[in-house]
């Protein structure tokens, strides 16, 4: 067993996210085939940790028509990268940088009269017309106008449109239950949105874009497709419909390397509080990635990595910057360690991590820390 590595002038990150843009492009194609209407590719939270700007460019090249983000800051970062496609931001309130958003042509979600007034003020200052999609709450009890407040919002939006500072080009909502395959899981919210769309039209508005479908809606519920669909999770290869697979391809591969090896005798405790003790003599490897980098501490029990095609279990409690795994004696320092990879090779996946941690793959991917290097490729070479 090697105790060290040969001197070298090469450097490599302690941990690496490599993003396959070929997989993202193929996922976009699947989503477009499933819906038959324009697709908004959602690249919030730095593209679920995949790199928002790079994913945005790939998704648009693959046929997406819109980009979706949570915050105005995320939208402005895309504009700063010279991305000219329509961008929709939905976490909008009167205290956001609405002036910049209006100047850069960001389409803004609006769910209440206060936000509408602030958008109109920003448009007045810029001497431009602000593009707005009115948001309706159809059963999430989260964002969006209540059905009771909707007529007042539509009336005020029609007045703002009449004076030439706001254009209501869309209405939209979100699905709470689309991850269930049954059609009735989405029927009530779709019906509610269409009914309130009629009220908006009666108030004098003519929204072009009507959207409610998320990834699960696109793949399992054709009734949700309307005039446009939005996808985040499926874009990155996350299956979101319970009990079904749609051939989506995970785009992120998370790797690290073995930096230390040690042989320990039976009875040796590992990590903080010695939550695991070796029942027999064994070999341990140190991996320089931990919960500060997005590896859930819950993987301390039942988690594993892949080294040279072999699953190696986590031993002891995962630390902030490192974890320990039990490895075959043939393991060598500098061997690649796959933390999230290809299930066809028997490697761990974000879905596997999520099941062990009691969360969602979305949480896992978006939670990978900034210390983990990010590189991009298309079915092969790293850029």
Concise summary:
This protein has eleven helices and 19 strands.
Helix-strand blueprint:
Elements: E1 16-20, H1 21-35, E2 39-42, H2 44-49, H3 52-61, E3 66-69, H4 72-80, E4 87-89, H5 98-103, E5 107-110, H6 113-126, E6 130-135, H7 150-162, E7 166-172, H8 184-202, E8 209-211, H9 215-220, E9 229-231, E10 252-257, E11 260-264, E12 269-270, E13 276-277, E14 282-287, E15 304-307, E16 310-313, E17 323-327, E18 336-340, H10 350-357, H11 361-366, E19 373-377
Parallel strand pairs: 1-19, 2-3, 2-9, 3-4, 4-5, 5-6, 6-7, 7-8
Antiparallel strand pairs: 1-10, 10-18, 11-14, 12-13, 14-17, 15-16
Helix pairs in contact: 1-3, 6-7
Any overview of this molecule?
This protein is an alpha/beta fold. It has eleven helices and 19 strands. Helix content is 29%, strand content 22%. Strand 4, helix 5 and strand 5 form a beta-alpha-beta unit. The model is unreliable at 1-9 (pLDDT under 50).
């Amino acid at each position: 067993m090697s105790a060290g590595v040969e001197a070298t002038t090469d450097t490599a990150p302690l941990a690496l996210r490599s993003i396959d843009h070929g997989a993202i492009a193929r996922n976009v194609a699947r989503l477009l085939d499933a819906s038959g209407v324009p697709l908004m590719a959602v690249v919030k939270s730095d593209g679920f940790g995949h790199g928002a700007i790079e994913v945005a460019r790939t998704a648009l090249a693959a046929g997406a028509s819109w980009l979706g983000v949570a915050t105005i800051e995320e939208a402005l970062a895309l504009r700063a990268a010279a991305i000219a496609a329509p961008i929709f931001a939905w976490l909008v309130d009167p205290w956001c940088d609405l002036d910049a958003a209006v100047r850069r042509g960001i389409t803004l979600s609006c769910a209440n009269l206060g936000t509408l007034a602030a958008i109109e003020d920003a448009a007045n200052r810029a001497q431009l017309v602000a593009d707005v999609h009115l948001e309706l709450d159809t059963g999430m009890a989260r964002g969006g106008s209540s059905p009771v407040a909707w007529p007042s919002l539509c009336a005020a939006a029609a007045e703002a449109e009449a004076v030439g500072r706001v254009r209501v080009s869309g209405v939209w909502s979100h699905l709470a239950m689309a991850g269930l395959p049954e059609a009735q899981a989405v029927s009530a919210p779709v019906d509610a949105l269409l009914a309130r769309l009629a009220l908006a039209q009666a108030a004098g508005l003519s929204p072009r874009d009507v959207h409610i479908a998320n990834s699960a809606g696109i793949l399992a519920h054709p009734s949700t497709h309307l005039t446009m669909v939005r996808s985040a999770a499926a874009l990155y290869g996350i299956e979101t419909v319970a009990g079904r697979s749609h051939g989506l391809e995970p785009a992120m591969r998370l790797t690290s390397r073995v930096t230390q090896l040690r042989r320990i005798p039976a009875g040796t405790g590992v990590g903080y509080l010695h939550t695991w003790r070796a029942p027999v003599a064994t070999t341990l490897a140190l991996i320089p990635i931990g919960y500060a980098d997005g590896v859930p501490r819950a993987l301390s029990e039942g988690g594993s990595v892949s080294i040279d095609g072999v699953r190696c279990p986590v031993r002891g409690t995962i630390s902030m910057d490192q974890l320990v795994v039990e490895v075959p004696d043939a393991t060598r320092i500098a061997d690649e360690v796959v933390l999230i990879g290809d299930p066809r090779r028997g490697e761990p996946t974000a879905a596997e991590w999520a099941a062990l941690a009691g969360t969602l793959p979305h949480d896992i991917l978006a939670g990978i820390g900034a210390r983990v290097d990010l590189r991009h490729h298309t079915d092969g070479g790293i850029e």
